[in-house]
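FAQ: What does the model actually see?

It sees only this:
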Amino acid sequence: MKVNKLWFDDEKIFILADDGRELWQSLLWYPRLQNANPQQRQKYEIDGSGIRWEEIDEDMSLESFLYENPEPAGVAGIFRAHPELNVSAVARRMGMKQSLLAAYIGGNKKPSKERENEIVAVVKQIGKELSEVY
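And it is asked to produce this:
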């Protein structure tokens, strides 16, 4: 696949592939790119395997535009949208290994529905506790 055009909106990166497909990914998967200014976002190089932003040290494979979930959902979506959540602290609070929770957030593993509900419940409890702070 070759890229004919690349552009951004507030939350996504889009490409127009040489076969006419318009593909996108959420910038939540790429925090450095999400936080980059418009000038930094425009300083990229494309080769046969991906896109590179040297100034912000970010790489994105072209293959990743074909992944099933271009946008983080569930547990991954919560933690990507709220980087202020401390993964290690949440995992400790649940009695879970930090590496397992990180794998769920990174999309490398998928939690069962029951486990996902447990994680969401802990995050909601943290939110409730924070809302009671005066």
